[in-house]
Each structure stands twice: as structure tokens, then as C-alpha cells.
Design goal:
Blueprint lengths: L42 E7 L12 H9 L4 E8 L2 E7 L7 H8 L8 E5 L9
Antiparallel strand pairs: 1-3, 1-4, 2-3
Length: about 130
């Protein structure tokens, strides 16, 4: 079988969209450099409600209204509702300066439901 020796290029990623600084230098390690060419970089926020919101996922109910409030500033790529915890992945990155800004945008009061806190530590997947 024939083998062609490439004269340029390397095994480093061509796309490094999550760091927004172009391709990684051939001499640099890719450790700690997320490479995600399949879509936009996401910001992750977790909000905790004052009571369970599982029954409030219908049209014009609490979860839908929170989603509408968040999407005034960003686009929700995915979300998870697990009891009192609502997790969101949003883009573009930087749409919310921090978790407090996210909570301010998302926290709507609706028939006794409200968001008590928010963090930007990651996406909480529901337990099976």
C-alpha cells in the first residue's frame, strides 16, 4: 500500500471555536483547549426555584414564561427541569455578564413561583 508523507499540517484542531482565538499553534498542547466545531459555544446557568416547577411546564405556565424571559437576551440551546432546578445552556456567550444578571433576566414571579438563586457552574442533568 502506498503512503503519502504530508509536507505541512499537523494533528492540532483547525477549529477552536470555544476559545475564539483561531487555530491552535502546532507547538502548543491541546490539553485544556475545548474544540467544539459542531455549534456555538454555550454558557451554562442553573437556577433554583422556591418550589418544584415540574407541574408548570405547559403553555403559558411558569417554565415557559422563564424561557421567554431568557430569550429576550439570548437563545436557549437546551434546558432541563428537575424538581426545583432549572438548567439552561444559552448562546451567544457573554449575553449575561454573570449568574446575577441571568437571575435578574429570568426571575419572573408567577402564581407563587420564583427563582431564588442562580449559578453558572454548569448544566445539571436529571437523575434517571
Amino acid at each position: 500500500m502506498a503512503y503519502y508523507t504530508p509536507v505541512n499540517g499537523d494533528a492540532q484542531p483547525v477549529f477552536a471555536l470555544d476559545v475564539q482565538n483561531g487555530p491552535v499553534s502546532p507547538s502548543a498542547s491541546t490539553a485544556g483547549t475545548p474544540v467544539q466545531p459542531a455549534g456555538p459555544k454555550l454558557d451554562f446557568f442553573r437556577a433554583v426555584a422556591n418550589t418544584t416547577v415540574v407541574s408548570q411546564q405547559g403553555v403559558q405556565e411558569y417554565v415557559a414564561n422563564v424561557i421567554n424571559a431568557i430569550q429576550q437576551t439570548s437563545t436557549i440551546a437546551m434546558y432541563q427541569v428537575d424538581g426545583t432546578v432549572l438548567s439552561f445552556a444559552v448562546y451567544p456567550t457573554g449575553a449575561f455578564a454573570n449568574a446575577a444578571a441571568f437571575l435578574s433576566a429570568a426571575n419572573i414571579t408567577y402564581t407563587g413561583y420564583q427563582l431564588d438563586s442562580a449559578t453558572n457552574v454548569g448544566f445539571k442533568l436529571a437523575a434517571s
